Amino acid sequence: MFKKIFSSALFFFCLIGFSQDNLTLKIELTNSKYEIIKEGNAYLFNSETNQLIKIESIVDSHFLFTSLNKGNYNIQIQCKDFEDIDQKVTLNQNLNLKLVLSKISITELNEIVLKSEKKIFTNTNGNIKVDIASSLFEAVPNPMDLLSKLPGIQISGDKESISIVGKGNALIYIDNQKVGINDLNALSVEDIKTIEIIKNPSSKYEAEGKAVILITIKLSKKDGFETTISEVASFKKRFNNYLSINSSFKKNKTEIKTNFGYNLLNPWESIGNNFEIPNKNIDSDFIAESFTRRRQFILGGGIYHQINEDDYLSFNMSGKIQKDNDKNTTNSFISQINVQNNIETLNNNDENRNFLNSFINYNKKIKSLDAKLFTGFQYSNFYQKSNSVIQNNYNNTQFDLIQNRNQKFNVNVFSGRTDLEKSFKNEIKWEIGALYLSAEANTNFEVIDFISNNNEFTNYNFKEKNIAGYTQLSGKIKKLNYLIGIRTENTNIKGKYKIDDNLLINKNYTNFFPKFQIDIPIDSTKTISLNYAKSISRPNYSSTSQVSIYTNPFLVFSRNINLNPTISDEISGTFQFKNKSVKLNFFQSKDTVYFAFSFDSSINLISFNSINYAKESGFNLEFTLPFKQKFWTSTNNFNFILNKIEDKSAVFNESKPYLYYYSNHIFELPKEFDFSITGWGFTERKEGVFKRNSLFIMDLALSKTLLKNFDCTLSFNDVFRNMNFNENFTINDIASKGIYYTDTREISFSLRYKFGRIKDSNYQERNIDENSNRIR
């Protein structure tokens, strides 16, 4: 019945007709002496989606864009020896512009003088866009640390997942192309132009997640080459160094990009916990500390070839090679039935993590249908190998060899997709697409136990196939903009140990994910937006592994191969007034994933792993309030949250509202200095099962450009050393009081040197693996 209703709705919207706008935009350029400029290029972007619409060169002394619809556009103009122009244009009728270019930072437009000034933060319906290029953020050494400095973005302690406050896990896109954590880590901050935090993504984005982080890559402009060399010296508990080289070369219709990074890192982390199991008369507490020597090689390269005005072919490959040497020390106290022990555990671990991603894309415009067709294939591989030597010292006697743990995890993912986009004369756009994905993961887990002589070896195999299809219709009825879409996904999962004949995991399920959005303009400064979306969050492929971490004789961290996906329903409304917004959001999820403890009395061991909690629901009331006063620019975000997590195996405590706040201030000082101060944090959080501590974090940065080509930035992060997380909860009759200590207090110095330029760059890639964020 639902399919019939939806098909009828699609048919109805396809019949809605309006006359085609077919507007033209003509631009003439002169210099300050009003002499006509005869060489240059103009790039026309959709101001809402930031998608490149057309590229034109000067012909007969002007640019001419034809067959345009009414709406808002961004124009970027580059001419040799003249200052670039980045200008917004509202097109309601045919428009002729005369622009005067100058070598100084002044642009004259129709006798109105505009100073070239970029906003670092832009707010649209609660979606925040951050201009990274040529800002203080560009000096951050890696993308994960960069994201952690933006409003509402939270990075997990192990830096393996990214979430948005009030939304949960986020999808990551690069140039409207979906990527994962490993792709993000292989990206250079130098290549990033903007980052947009989309709170209500349309159905063109995959159903995996309730929010999207959209990263836009810089466009080079001139034939030739451009190279940027950057180095960051970072002082935390120990010294860290980041070195990267990024190069681009373009000739005619072909462009090549490469990047290389070498990082010498010394991360530190610590975790502690207090356990009580009253019905077993057990008390335990521990504090663990880890020092790591880490070497990282980050490599990337790609080629883009423009076949003609509308068609292109591209290939890209990126990877990261990482070698860790860990020294882990745990001091534990265990009291069980009046028997007490103090235990010191040494865990020396060597680990390799390698990631490779490659894809080839082809884009074709079918002129007979006035449609765009995209086809792409992608292959990804993640390999992890670790060897651990574990020793225990009971009650300050001597260290005894306990275990050797040898673990290997390997996952291969192949995917292919196709997308068709068709625009109609009346501003209706219809999109349809399909995806096929095949993933296979293998885990080899070996434990050599020197105490019991009970050695263990397992080989676990996991296979997943995903077939997905979607359709989406968007358009405009008078002043009202609408979007309606649906996506369906079939997932088939099988998992078994090699020695077993029967499957341990055998799942086959199909889900439908409808999305709806409507924008109602009140006037030129006020808009009301309403959204509904259904989404899914699947377990990472690493959760299918049997990899475990030995903490002490009483506690082990392990994976959970039986995790189910989380299904969420969400409805929200946003009121936008100029650049300020207020948003009310409600969501409800089932099978949400959080950590939990369980005790196995037969082996006297507590396991710490992820499980599915029964349900989660919450309200968010979010205010985004930017302002600017002369040399002072401020962006402020306040999110009042009431969240409730429930499960029958956990003790439900109270659920109370709490506040997330973010405030960034940038001061343009004399002599071209820029100073930034950022503060963010939470009040105390009580979310049903979990009670978490309050936080307040402050970061400072000072930047200046020397000799035009040298950018220098001095940063002081986590000034008050407050980035410590407390989490208290009771589950399976185990009361836990945990704390996680981070090494985020940092003084760093960044130096960047750039030379050369690229002209007319159209370099782009599209990630066709919708599950690449699960490869970790």
Automatic annotation (TrEMBL):
Domain TonB-dependent receptor plug, chain residue ranges per copy: 140-205
Domain Outer membrane protein beta-barrel: 364-753
InterPro entries for this protein: OMP_b-brl_3, Plug_dom, Plug_dom_sf
Keywords linked to the UniProt accession: Receptor
Name used for this protein in its record: Outer membrane receptor proteins, mostly Fe transport
Native species: Flavobacterium frigoris
